[in-house]
Structure formats: structure tokens, C-alpha cells
């Protein structure tokens, strides 16, 4: 499935341990087509440096950053009304992208959607935002990735979003004695069969490398 890709128009709920290097998957997903990259935790210039360090991403000109981080943390007060305003701003930004790119395929990456899940807003606003992204990606035929940190959020709203999502992609670290293995699983794919096992990977000079070795019982 990693080579064939996800079905066009899929909303991917991408949940990962924060120490699993999962963001490298997101960097590679920018290489398939024009990508609107919503960054909530760092300035775009730092993300650009990290993405450019992955050899498989050749054209950073096709990655358009939407800087939620600076707008919220550097230009706003945070909390209260500012939480409502950042939701309104990102909805307006997505609607503009929808109009400007009508008829074109593109990806949306939200790094991280955990930021939105922790805002002091009604859960209805979060589900409304998810549904907006869902509708946009269905219309354009691209992919949308909601990057969420594992074991962080209220399970009820996570379950609602996972029910909406077309794909559930999980990345974690397996600890075996003194060894640690990075691995991923894809437990839900609408329109395709999910992968019925964990797949180990490592991060190399060209990005994600699937570990084809087998554990000996």
C-alpha cells in the first residue's frame, strides 16, 4: 500500500508516538503533488530545512506552508477568544484554497492536528473543521493527513474523527530488550484491504526505508 498509495480523496488519521520519527512520513507525502502544509508547532523555515534534508523530496516549491504557529503563539495571546479566532482563520484559509485550486489535485497536511484538539473550543467546532477538510479532499482527489500524538486526547472525540477518516495509520516504537524498532500499521482503509500486521521501518538518507528483515522466534 505504501507503493500503490492510498485511495484518491482519502482523509488519513495519522496517529504516532512523538519519539517515533513519524514526521518523516509526512515529509515524504509532500513529494507526490502540491501540498498545503499546516504547521502548528514550529516555524515554516525549520520544517523546510527538515524536509529538504530528505533526499526523496525534490521540489519544495510545491509545498505551501500555512503558519498557524506564528499566528497563534507569536502574534496572538493564546486561549479564550484567540482559540475561536484561530479556528475561524484556518477555516477561511481552507475555503480560499478550495476556491483557488478548484479542479486541481493537492494534498493537505496538518502537523499537528493535536494542536486543534487541545484548543478551548466546543468539540462541534473541531468536527466541523474535520468535515471541511474531508469535503475538500474528496473534491480535489488528493490526500489529507491529520497528524495526532498518541495517548494525548479525549478518546470520545478521537473515536468520532477516526470514524470519519478513510484511513487510520499508526506509528509507534516497539521495545524488545535493549532494542527499539520503529513500526507502523494501517488498520483501516476504505476501498482497500488494510495491512494485517506491523511493518518495521527505519529512517535513512532517502527517508523511510521498510525493514524487510524477519524476527527469529
TrEMBL record:
Keyword Nuclease applies: no
Leader sequence segment: none
GO molecular function: ATP binding
Alphabetical UniProt keywords: ATP-binding, Nucleotide-binding
Domain of life (superkingdom): Archaea
One Pfam family in the UniProt entry: DUF7125
Keyword Transferase set for record: no
Name listed for the protein in its UniProt record: Recombinase RecA
Amino acid at each position: 500500500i505504501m507503493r500503490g498509495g492510498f485511495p484518491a480523496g482519502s482523509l488519513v488519521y495519522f496517529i504516532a508516538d512523538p519519539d517515533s520519527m513519524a514526521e518523516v512520513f509526512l515529509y515524504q507525502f509532500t513529494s507526490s503533488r502540491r501540498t498545503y502544509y499546516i504547521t502548528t508547532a514550529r516555524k515554516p523555515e525549520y520544517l523546510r530545512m527538515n524536509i529538504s534534508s530528505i533526499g526523496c523530496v525534490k521540489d519544495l516549491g510545491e509545498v505551501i506552508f500555512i503558519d498557524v504557529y506564528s499566528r497563534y503563539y507569536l502574534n496572538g495571546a493564546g486561549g479564550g477568544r484567540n482559540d475561536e479566532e484561530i479556528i475561524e482563520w484556518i477555516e477561511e484559509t481552507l475555503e480560499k484554497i478550495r476556491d483557488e485550486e478548484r479542479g486541481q489535485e493537492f494534498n493537505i497536511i496538518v502537523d499537528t492536528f493535536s494542536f486543534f484538539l487541545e484548543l478551548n473550543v466546543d468539540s462541534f467546532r473541531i468536527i466541523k473543521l474535520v468535515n471541511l477538510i474531508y469535503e475538500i479532499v474528496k473534491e480535489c482527489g488528493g490526500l489529507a493527513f491529520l497528524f495526532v500524538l498518541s495517548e494525548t486526547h479525549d478518546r470520545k472525540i478521537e473515536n468520532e474523527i477516526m470514524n470519519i477518516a478513510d484511513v487510520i495509520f499508526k506509528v509507534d516504537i516497539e521495545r524488545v530488550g535493549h532494542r527499539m524498532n520503529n513500526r507502523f500499521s494501517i488498520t483501516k482503509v476504505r476501498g482497500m484491504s488494510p495491512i494485517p500486521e506491523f511493518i518495521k521501518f527505519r529512517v535513512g538518507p532517502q527517508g523511510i526505508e521498510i525493514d524487510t528483515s524477519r524476527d527469529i522466534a
